[in-house]
Structure formats: structure tokens, C-alpha cells
Amino acid sequence: MTAQLLLVGECMLELRAESADRLSHSAAGDTFNTAVYLKRLLPELPVRYVSALGDDQMSGIIRAHMGRHGVDDGLVCSLPGRTPGLYAIETDAAGERKFSYWRAQSAARGMLDEAHLARLYAALPDCRWLFLTGITLAILDDERRAALLALATRVRELGGWVIVDDNHRPALWKAEPARLWLDQALRICTHALLGFDDQAQLYGDADPQAMLARILRNKTSEVVIKAGSAGCLVGGHGIEPRAVAGRPVRAVDTTAAGDSFNAGYLAARLSGQPPPEAAAYGCGLAGIVVAHRGAIIPLESMPAPPAERVRREP
């Protein structure tokens, strides 16, 4: 049996203006970005993406991107007649982003139907780590949200890690359902990688310390509160809270800052590093990523991996 990491989400076609009359395209999305960086840092780890695409040319382009990055698409189902989501991105002088989305009819919203769930449950004996985000939950209907959390519950029952990043997007859902479903996800997860701004917007936390105390009232073993360039706060059951400084850089594009942090943190943890050191590694990777344009930086710009061998059991 080979331990695998599954990431559930939506991979979209990203459009970026290179000039007044020229657009470039690539595949991106929060969970996919994390998958790519995890595979780069831990090339021996089977990284599998869970989603749905259509049977059109654009879906084929996205699958080709997955293949080039070594991300397995065997659990990405094909829905005939559907198309993937699309977004365009602009960045200002400070590297902050403005998005325009065309995703209301995205094929990913149709994942986790009966046939797809059967394939996923069949894959669970090899799944040691399951990763999902608030965006994953936001794009699904209530039936599919419940199905995803039932799947996550089963992973935890089998002794695996369930990792949740809130990644709140107000444009995708209102605050009330966001709190309802994120509360459920946080009660199920073993590891929470949360953004302070996202959580404060939803719950009104005064500071990262208050947020950490609230999250730890759940059964979450390990919590990271991310605060952008200010670094993060790490804590958990049996883990003394510790602030980890961010990496001061001039941000060019913050598109995948949190996504790359997640990958760096998890890669370091799976390599045996304790949470504070893993958080420092994640901050370092995020600092490199935001100094480049685009969600996925050139391979030659990647830092050295946290270790040579993946720890196979959580």
C-alpha cells in the first residue's frame, strides 16, 4: 500500500494579460497550486487531485498541465458537455490581485456524484492525507458539501490527516452558510491552516491568539493562523503557541501566497519537522512565490526540499 495525498477542489484556466493584445493561459486554483508545490517538494509522494472537468479542449489543456506537474488526475471525473471555470487576474503595483471569474457553470461543481464518490471511497485505503478548502466547499451544493465532509470523516476514522484551509471568498457564498459549513469542517479536521483576515471577517476574532483559542475548542490537533507578511501563529493540543516571523520581501504577485505556504508547511511536516520549523519553511516558500508573477513559479526558483524522504504515516 502506497500512502497518498488527495486534494479536493477546482482547477481553472487562468488568463493573464502579457500586453495590451496578448493573453497567456495556465492552470491554477488554490488546491491545485498547493498540489503542484507539494509534488515539487516531495516528488516521491503520490499527489492526487480530486475534481471534475468537462470533455472539451480547455479541460484537456488543464489535464495536460496536471500531467506536466506530476499531479495525478485519475480521480478527476469527466462530465460530458461541461466546461471548466475560467478567471482573469490583474495585479496592482503592490502585488495585490483583482480577479474576474467565469465559474458559475464550472464542471467542478458537479463532482462528488454517486459514481465519483464510489471511486473516492475505493481509494481511501491508500489515502493518508486529505486536503480541502473553503473554496472547495463554497462551489458545491449542500448535498455535495455533506458528502465531502462525510468522506473527510472517514479519512479521520481511518487514522489519516484531514487538512482544512478556510480560504474564504465572499463572492462565492454568504457569511452565514460559510460559517455553518466551515464550522463543520473544522470539527472534523486534524489540521487547520487558517487565514487571520478570513476568520476575523467571519467570526470577529480580535487577534490571532483569540482565534487560536476558539479553534482549539474543536478536536483539531494542529492549527496555523496565517497573517500574511507578518508571519503566523502555530499551536495545537500539546503544542505550545509560538509566533513565527514572516519573510520580508517586495511582493510582485500574492496570488498563491497562502497556497504555497500550505504546501511548504505540509511538506516539512511530512518530512518530520515540528510545527514551528514547518511554519518557518512555509513562510520562506511563500516569500519566494510572491516575488514572482503568477501562481506557479519557475522550477529553478524553488528552494531546497525540507528533506529527502517522506514520512509515510501521519
UniProtKB/TrEMBL annotation:
<feature type="domain" description="Carbohydrate kinase PfkB">
    <location>
        <begin position="4"/>
        <end position="300"/>
    </location>
</feature>
<dbReference type="GO" id="GO:0019698">
    <property type="term" value="P:D-galacturonate catabolic process"/>
</dbReference>
<dbReference type="InterPro" id="IPR002173">
    <property type="entry name" value="Carboh/pur_kinase_PfkB_CS"/>
</dbReference>
<dbReference type="GO" id="GO:0005829">
    <property type="term" value="C:cytosol"/>
</dbReference>
<comment type="similarity">
    <text>Belongs to the carbohydrate kinase PfkB family.</text>
</comment>
<dbReference type="InterPro" id="IPR011611">
    <property type="entry name" value="PfkB_dom"/>
</dbReference>
<dbReference type="GO" id="GO:0006974">
    <property type="term" value="P:DNA damage response"/>
</dbReference>
<dbReference type="InterPro" id="IPR029056">
    <property type="entry name" value="Ribokinase-like"/>
</dbReference>
<dbReference type="InterPro" id="IPR050306">
    <property type="entry name" value="PfkB_Carbo_kinase"/>
</dbReference>
<dbReference type="Pfam" id="PF00294">
    <property type="entry name" value="PfkB"/>
</dbReference>
<keyword id="KW-0808">Transferase</keyword>
<keyword id="KW-0418">Kinase</keyword>
<dbReference type="GO" id="GO:0042840">
    <property type="term" value="P:D-glucuronate catabolic process"/>
</dbReference>
<dbReference type="GO" id="GO:0008673">
    <property type="term" value="F:2-dehydro-3-deoxygluconokinase activity"/>
</dbReference>
<protein>
    <submittedName>
        <fullName>2-dehydro-3-deoxygluconokinase</fullName>
    </submittedName>
</protein>
